[in-house]
Design brief:
This protein is of the alpha/beta class and 172 residues long. It is built from 5 helices and 8 strands. It has helices at residues 32-44, 83-94, 112-118, 131-138, 155-171; strands at 2-5, 8-10, 15-16, 28-31, 49-53, 71-76, 100-105, 122-125. Helix 2 links the parallel strand 6 (71-76) and strand 7 (100-105). The chain starts with a strand and ends with a helix. The relative contact order is 0.13.
Length: 172
């Protein structure tokens, strides 16, 4: 798998660790279950830490711990399961999480731009995704009707700005 963060292909410094695996030195991503069972031990480590949430595990269960986490990885188990979109928005907008929100699992190219709009800043993608594919798929739409976590202006707000600009030039 490759990691795209903030639009750049980068080397992933985090290691995903299973519940029974020994913890390696360096940054790790653990399951919610392991985090809950070993919170004190994991928090005491002097390395960046991430938690992976499965589709049915809401971010509210880690809301009080977000200041301890460098990464929250949200799982896309299947194409038809989009709960992680909502969870990414909750992390950004309700909980004010500033760390990395990573899409993992079934991350498809036709969803890249929507994932970014919802608050994901890192995506684990298959090895066949190239920078050219990323550029094409992450910028497919230039205008949006709905507001999102990315802060891009909506069509309505752009129309209002144009109307205000036209009105101010008419009165000048």
């Amino acid at each position: 798998m490759q990691l795209i963060k903030n639009g750049e292909f980068i080397e992933d410094s985090f290691v995903a660790v299973g519940d029974e695996d020994a913890l390696p030195d360096g940054p790790v991503i653990v399951s919610l279950e392991r985090w809950q069972a070993e919170r004190e031990t994991l928090s005491a480590r002097n390395t960046p830490l991430g938690v992976r949430l499965k589709s049915g595990q809401e971010p509210s269960v880690i809301a009080d711990d977000l200041d301890k986490l460098s990464v929250v990885a949200l799982e896309f188990p299947a194409y038809r399961n989009g709960r992680a979109y909502s969870y990414a928005r909750l992390l950004r907008e309700r909980y004010g999480y500033k760390g990395e929100v990573r899409a993992v699992g079934n991350v498809l190219r036709d969803q890249f731009q929507f994932m970014i709009r919802c608050g994901f800043d890192a995506l684990e993608v298959s090895d066949n995704i190239t920078p050219e594919i990323w550029a094409e798929c992450s910028n497919f739409f230039s205008l949006f009707y709905q507001p999102a976590a990315d802060g891009k202006p909506t069509v309505l707000s752009l129309r209002q700005r144009l109307a205000a600009r036209a009105q101010s030039s008419d009165t000048a």
